[in-house]
Design brief:
Blueprint: H1 24-36, H2 42-71, H3 76-95
Helix pairs in contact: 1-2
């Protein structure tokens, strides 16, 4: 099966498009990376890479908070307040 007849690698509910200008060398690298990851196009690879970055950024942020809490222990009430603040901030990021 060639890359020209593969299925889209993004979810069917995706409804927004993003224009990206790439240098010829970038476009070639993105297309090669897409094929290596079994994705349909360079755009699908960029969408996957963006999602991967966001997941890693969230994991890093959560780990940073846990590390901070370990270095600066607080009482139960303060810890509960911090968790609620982080949960509401995470929910706001997901909604907006």
């Amino acid at each position: 099966m060639g890359f020209w007849d593969s299925n889209p690698s993004y979810p069917p509910t995706a409804d927004r498009r993003v224009s990206v200008r790439a240098a010829p060398s970038q476009k070639g690298r993105w297309e090669t990376a897409a094929r290596l990851h079994g994705l349909a196009s360079a755009g699908a690879f960029l969408a996957w890479a963006g999602d991967m970055y966001l997941a890693l950024a969230r994991a890093w942020e959560d780990a940073s908070h846990e590390h901070y809490d370990a270095l600066h222990p607080a009482g139960l009430a303060e810890e509960a307040r911090r968790r609620e603040e982080r949960a509401s901030a995470r929910q706001a990021r997901e909604e907006g």
